[in-house]
Amino acid sequence: MKKNIAIIMGGYSSEYLISLKSGQMVFDSLPKTLYNAYCIHIFKDKWVYVAEDFKEYPVNKADFSIVVEGSKTNFDCVFNAIHGAPGEDGTMQAYFELLSIPHTSCNMYQAALTFNKRDCLSVLKPYGILMADSYFLNVGDPIDASAIEKAVGFPCFVKANKAGSSFGVTKVYSKTDLPSAIKTAFKEDDELIIESFLDGTEVSVGVIRYKGEVTVLPITEIITENDFFDYEAKYLGKSQEITPARLSKMQEADVRKVAKHIYEVLKLDGFSRSEFIFKDGKPYFLEVNTIPGLTKESILPQQAEQAGISMSDLFDNAIQQALQKNP
């Protein structure tokens, strides 16, 4: 008997358009012989099932069900394709866990922790994982440019603490550029992280649970045409993504080991994609994404393809793992 799968997409953040593309790719790729897939759009003003004729049916939030032409559908599993809030920050995970509905992402606490860059770095630091120097700032805090310069130096990156797809990120070269960069980041979040610039090779490492085993996918090297790997570089073709990355055997072994260690230390599940920059031959950790892009152009599906895992198999596996974890 086919399983009913809700593919949630959209969300409340600036990443909603990317999420809609990821969700549609999941819908198009899932084996139709195994699953009845439903595109569920999650927005602040509505939660709806969008049928293939684009007609919308409201979601009953009490039990996460839909009624179509008098027939009620409950879901066996949720495929989470929401980048940013509320799909990547723990909110939806907590909701589905309360309803005892299996879902493809990590658990609520892990999602909330990894979505908060500052907290995630703080948890990982005692494990000896290398990372950039950082300085934290909240809305209303005095801006001490000299203290920031002393802590991280210039150039540095000003980032929204809880945002993705490089929204709210600015590379800053001097004290005079700080106020406008901070203002930009505060449009995305009320907490900031300011990090020292690491000059080196940037790589992205996908780690997933595949057929019950924590699996590190082939590594992707990122070469951006812009000043850094910003939104244009990620989504508008302003970068080269080379898989497998051009690393020495030692560098590859080091970053694979660290990425897997992070996945296991944080007790992650489902998909993850960790970002690193090599400095003096060593991988420095930047952040981990637990709902990475899932379009054909996205990094993690490219890595899976290099590993001989098709999109259909990748998404089917995520559902099977979720169902086995929460039978």
Description:
This protein has 327 residues and is an alpha+beta fold. The protein folds into three domains: 3-104, 3-Layer(aba) Sandwich (Rossmann fold), CATH 3.40.50.20; 113-130 and 199-325, D-amino Acid Aminotransferase, Chain A, domain 1, CATH 3.30.470; 134-196, ATP-grasp fold, A domain (Dna Ligase, domain 1), CATH 3.30.1490. The protein is built from ten helices and 17 strands. The chain has helices at residues 16-29, 91-99, 108-115, 117-124, 145-152, 178-186, 231-235, 249-265, 299-306, 311-325; strands spanning 3-10, 35-43, 46-50, 56-60, 65-68, 71-73, 77-80, 134-138, 156-160, 170-172, 191-196, 202-210, 213-216, 220-224, 239-242, 271-279, 282-289. Strands 6-5-4-3-2-1-7 form a seven-stranded mixed β-sheet. A hairpin with a 4-residue loop joins strand 4 (56-60) and strand 5. Helix 2 (91-99) packs antiparallel against helix 3. It is globular, with a radius of gyration of 20 Å. It starts with a strand and ends with a helix. Mean pLDDT is 92; it is low at 228-236.
The CATH homologous superfamily of the largest domain = ATP-grasp fold, B domain
CATH topology of the largest domain: D-amino Acid Aminotransferase, Chain A, domain 1
CATH C-level class of the largest domain is Alpha Beta
Low-confidence stretches: 228-236
Structural class: alpha+beta
Tally the structural domains: 3
Please tell me what the overall shape is: globular
Element pattern in H and E: EHEEEEEEHHHEHEEHEEEEHEHEEHH
How is the largest sheet built, in terms of strand order?
6-5-4-3-2-1-7
